[in-house]
Amino acid sequence: MLRRRRLWVVLTALVFSTTWWLIEQPQRAKPTRHMTGMPFAPVVKNPTRASAAPASTSTSPLGAEPADATAYVELNSPARSPSNDLKIIGHLIALYLVSTPASDRVTLKDNKDVTRVLTEPNANGTIILPKSHPTIDLQGRLCDRWGTPYRFRPVSENSIEIRSAGPDRKLFTNDDLVAESAR
Fold it and tell me: What pLDDT, on a 0 to 100 scale, did the predictor assign at position 141?
């Protein structure tokens, strides 16, 4: 009988203290642009516009579909291949294009243009890639896993070439990685 009473007192005290702690704990901050499920996950204010392309239709020859806005998390990941990084960048560019009305799009001519449109809020308030992502250098350029800035070159009105200098860090050598992204 004494043991039951002690157990009841301990459990009551535990429930009371837990309830008091939960009530007294300051309210957690509401999620903001950089406090969503994944670290630095982009926020799309108008999800219907951002997901205008059907998920089953690939908008890039790289196979990147703009349905997953958190692909950048694996950018330059040692667990993935360097060619996967090009696919992710193609995916991020496709996400920018899907989430930005045509009238608000910027012409992507070089690395700084691409980095700017991915890291700054577009007309819908979408940030595709956080400015603090480790692939962005101090000059604001998107860099490959070897620390060399990617080279972006418009190929046509609907396509942009993405080039990584590769492990030798020299452009236009045999170890360069090249992919094309639909625009």
Answer: 96
pLDDT at 146: 95
Is the predicted pLDDT of residue 20 greater than 80, yes or no?
A: no
Q: Are 178 and 171 in contact (CB under 8 A)?
A: no
Instruction: Classify 130 as helix, strand or coil.
Output: coil
Proportion of the chain in helix, strand, coil states, percent, rounded to 5:
35, 10, 55
Q: How much is the CA Rg of the chain, to the nearest whole Å? A: 23
Phi then psi dihedrals of residue 51, to 5 deg = -110, 30
Assign 3-class secondary structure to 54-88: CCCCCCCCCCCCCCCCCHHHHCCCCCCCHHHHHHH
Q: How many residues are there in the chain?
A: 183
Query: Which residue ranges form the domains of the chain, and what is each CATH number?
Result: 47-182 (3.30.700)
Span 127-149, average pLDDT = 94
- The values of phi and psi at residue 91, to 5°, are -65, -45
Contact between residue 144 and residue 150 where contact means Cβ atoms under 8 Å apart? yes
Q: Note the Cα 91 to chain centre separation in Å.
A: 10
CA of 154: how far to CAs of 90, 124, 171, in Å?
13, 24, 16
b/e per residue 87-99 (b: at least 16 CB within 10 A): bbbbbbbbbbbbb
